[in-house]
Amino acid sequence: MERAEWLKKWRGMAEALYDHGAPAYWVKFGLYPDPPHHQFIEKFLGRLGAHSAILDAACGAGLYDGILLEAGHSVLGIDQSGGMLARAREHFPQERFPELRYTKMGLQEMDFQATFDGVICMDALEHICPEDWPVILANFHKALRQGGVLYVTVDAQKLDEDGKAYERAKLMGLPVVFGEVVDELDEVYSLAMGMEAVEAASIGERLDLSVYHYHPSMEQVRTWFYQAGLAIEEEATEAEGTGEGYVHVLARKNA
Description:
By secondary structure, this protein is α/β, with parallel strands linked by helices. The chain has 10 helices and 9 strands. The radius of gyration is 18 Å and the shape is globular.
């Protein structure tokens, strides 16, 4: 299979998987404590003016939208999974939260023009292939007003783990690049789709293997940000001292 066709297939399957699992989201997961994410949300909010317009890109079920609303801002959440957006609307009904709206849209399809003072994209970019990273960062740049702030999380490259996954995938004949973790996709995807939503959530961390992952190097991420006209102001790695793991990035739109 050609790489472009393979990536398109997995993007569609990821959407189907999230739609399938959406009914279990607030039942099984709810609001989980994640101090680094909350710390950087506060740093992000501290860079915004009062009553700012925020885009929550790849918002899922709206995990962080309550925090943004409580800070006095208006929010548009977008996601490619209609099922996850349905859960978000149930949790934040329009009649109770008029400053919050949801729209079905993928990161690759964003076409906003200088609309937002801030953009967040959390726990989502690990599902984006390297071909789409520059496209999406350019979309974020266009969506932001001059001087607007972007906060993203990056599941950064893990050389040993990613190297083993890469070698296994190459032996399977898959059209992979280094950093992609896809060698168990077919098996775990079929397992998850064959279960009821809450039951699938019970397989824990293995469920994460049922969807495409790509872990870029931070050197590559910094290059992509620079090329998109986004100036990184702060970054921090959760796994301090290892150079690996989730990296929190705050950036600002240049001219």
